[in-house]
Amino acid sequence: MKRTIKVHVADDHKILIEGIIAVISTEKEMDVVGYSLTGKEVLEWFRHHEADVLILDINMPELDGIGVLKAFYKRKKKQKIIILSSYDDVKFAKKMTTLGADGFLAKSSAAEHVTKAIRSVHNGVPYFSDAIKEGLLQMYVGQNVARGSRPKINTKITKRELEVLKLIAKEYNTLEISDKLNLSINTVETYRKRLLKKINVKNSVGLAIYAVKYNII
Question: How many CB atoms lie within 10 A of CB 204?
């Protein structure tokens, strides 16, 4: 039996929260365990409770989504977060990933894509709309071309870690990587954690960007 994915929704418009809850409630393996209307409420809720995935609006009173992201980082709390925004902008999405976000969902398409996004980040795979994903990749590829050369890949990355990195960048989840490389799920997660430390990024988004930046895929 699959474990239920616990979700917390944070937005300053209760009607939008109710809409997202209604969509998530149609999924047997997902459960909304809480919601918040302000950034401060988010941080207070997570002091006493846990959720697998946080869907976080950027524009909230008292403390905005960026402030919440920074607070999680200061607490050294690894929390899977999907940013909910009215702005479907590549540069803005890039900023959110550098702050630790695992996905980016435009409010205009939230109802259509929210359950897919939740499954994706819960399985360790970043979630972005096709337009944002392509824009992020092009941005980093363009930076490499502008430099005229690319730095050397981190030599401390082992051959096996490199195999895992390639599959992460190709959007394989932990279970799929486990099957493909004939490794246990725990071993795959160990490799992922080592890669995060060696490359010095916060999540799988950073790993995917690193792979593109250094022509690994």
Answer: 28
